Amino acid sequence: MCEALQFEFMRNALLAGILVSISCGIIGSLVVVNRIVFISGGLAHAAYGGIGLAFFTGTPPILGAALFSVAFSMIMAAVSFKNRHRADTIIGVIWAVGMALGIILIDITPGYNVDLMSYLFGSILAVPKSDIWYMIPLDIIIVSSVVILYKEFLAMSYDEEFTFIAGIPVRLLYFFLLGMTALCVVMVIRVVGLILVIALLTIPPYIAEKYTRSLGRMMALACLLGILFTVLGLWLSYSYNLTSGATIVMVAAVAFFISQSFEITKKRNKIKVRK
């Protein structure tokens, strides 16, 4: 891995992976504990409309996707706030509309043939410095927002009724959470693609939840796991000439199944002891 870092594209890829892992660890933890994984998937696919719009208007793709995703996240928040379990149909429609709009806009963009695969499955090795300069402020916004509003997010995640009674604006906080999720999703798309976004957003927090007893520790461990999966995935993809985004997700998936096997073994041992 050290010899690979002599190349600028590998250094950019490693830095992008670390930045994405931090945002995924924090936002992913909130997504998992608030059970809005499906909504996050809808945002990931809707973001493709922003990418198409960006290419059509000549603006940076990550900026166009961010603005578009935030706008769609507000719609999803309005639809799902009162009844999250029955909002799947409308979210599915928004999911499809975002994808279709992005493809059509790319089709009619004059004189430019976009490699769709790089946005569907990620292209971390092709991340330019300009994208990293967008990722850094997004990371700062996400981290500082969660630090400032940590108690409010904690209350909303585990006891929404108490949060409302305590006078905390739950609706506004929920809208803000989905807005930050949209920004996080845009960052992840550049690394693993919109099809694999959910894996990197949810696997590290899900594993971290099993071994921590507080939301803050869960976020911290999820960030570390995300960085570990990214670095190991990059090393494997470089060593064996594999697609980097898919390799990173496969590393995370292996860790997920190992974690699940430990949990099953632990439960079986407890049952045996009781008998």
UniProtKB/TrEMBL annotation:
**Which is one Pfam family of this protein?**
ABC-3
Annotated TM spans? 13-32, 93-112, 132-150, 162-181, 187-207, 219-238, 244-265
Q: Where does this protein reside within or beyond the cell?
A: Cell membrane; Membrane
Major location, coarse class?
membrane
User: Which domain of life does the UniProt lineage start with?
Assistant: Bacteria
Q: Which GO terms describe its biological process?
A: response to zinc ion; transmembrane transport
Membrane topology classification? Multi-pass membrane protein
Q: Provide GO CC annotations from the record.
A: ATP-binding cassette (ABC) transporter complex
SUPFAM superfamilies given for it?
Answer: ABC transporter involved in vitamin B12 uptake, BtuC (SSF81345)
Q: What are the record keywords, sorted?
A: Membrane, Transmembrane, Transmembrane helix, Transport
CDD domains per UniProt: TM_ABC_iron-siderophores_like
Family stated for the protein in its record: Belongs to the ABC-3 integral membrane protein family.
Q: Which PANTHER family match?
A: ABC-TRANSPORTER METAL-BINDING PROTEIN, METAL TRANSPORT SYSTEM MEMBRANE PROTEIN CT_417-RELATED
What is the name of the protein in this document?
Metal ABC transporter permease
